[in-house]
Write a structure and sequence with these properties.
The chain is an alpha+beta fold. The chain contains ten helices and eight strands. The strands form two sheets. The protein has a six-stranded antiparallel β-sheet. Keywords: DNA-binding, Transcription, Transcription regulation.
Length: 263
């Protein structure tokens, strides 16, 4: 569960270990947008902040396959030092069909795949448990997902359109109004595929634009980052970044940037 207080000692997940990702092989790309692994540092456990991004992930962690549902605010899971997590990030519109579960039922939850009733969970866990290391588990994870897609429904195309609009900063209601989708239909589809309403998805993707700017902008001050990301002003950015991460923009900028920047 996320803390509502600022906690400047928390580390963003990308700073708490070695994170790497890759594009899935062609058979998986309709259903998954990234395969990734995260090897945590050894040593004393750190408070790690997992921040919302609008996605749902399938994880292999501590010998189990689990679904990480979409988050509204930062989560602070207890992670074993030195552990490696292998994951597959669902493409927008793919998770609800794959899991046969609306994502509104999974918001803020980490749920064993077997508890959702996925028929191959126990078999896949046994096969992954025989792997001798993270790289072998990552390779097998991808192959198991390729086996699994033979029986899965096609991802919803409208969800990809919703996500792309939210990601770009354009009002999501624009393209759907032109397509004849009512506000109520849009809200229902958004809750089904992302776990929350359109406005929350738009805010989360704006927060992710802020994170990307922190990673890529060498000299831009925080006020400039706020406007470039789509916030009204720096105060607006500070409120929303705190809500989604429990951290201040300056702390996040310090964690993600390579060089010193004006604030």
């Amino acid at each position: 569960m996320a803390s509502k207080k600022r906690n400047d000692t928390a580390l963003l997940a990308a700073r708490a270990g070695r994170y790497g990702e890759c594009t899935p092989p062609p058979p998986l790309r309709r259903y998954f947008c990234r395969l990734w692994s995260h090897a945590l540092h050894d040593g004393p456990p750190a408070m790690v902040a997992i921040v919302p991004d609008g996605y749902c992930d399938l994880l292999w962690i501590d010998g189990r396959l689990v679904v990480a549902g979409p988050d509204r605010t930062a989560a602070f899971p207890v992670l074993r030092p030195g552990a490696t997590v292998v994951g597959a990030r669902f493409a927008p519109g793919a998770a609800a069909a794959w899991l046969k579960t609306p994502l509104s039922a999974l918001v803020g939850r980490l749920v064993p795949l077997a508890d959702i009733g996925w028929k191959d969970a126990a078999e896949f866990e046994a096969r992954l448990g025989d792997c001798r290391g993270p790289s072998a588990a990552m390779a097998l994870f991808g192959r198991l997902l390729e086996e699994a897609i033979r029986d899965e429904d096609e991802p919803a195309r409208d969800a990809a359109i919703i996500f792309a609009a939210a990601d770009s900063g354009r009002p999501v209601s624009g393209p759907f109004g032109r397509l004849g989708m009512s506000e109520r239909q849009l809200r229902r589809r958004c809750h089904h595929h992302f776990g929350y309403g359109v406005k929350t998805l738009e805010r989360i993707r704006r927060f992710q634009r802020f994170l990307n700017l922190c990673r890529s902008s060498d000299t831009m001050p925080l006020a400039g980052i706020a406007l470039e990301a789509g916030f009204t002003d720096q105060a607006h950015m500070t409120r929303e970044v705190g809500e989604f991460s429990s951290l201040t923009p300056a702390v996040i900028l310090g964690q993600l940037s390579i060089s010193k920047r004006p604030g």
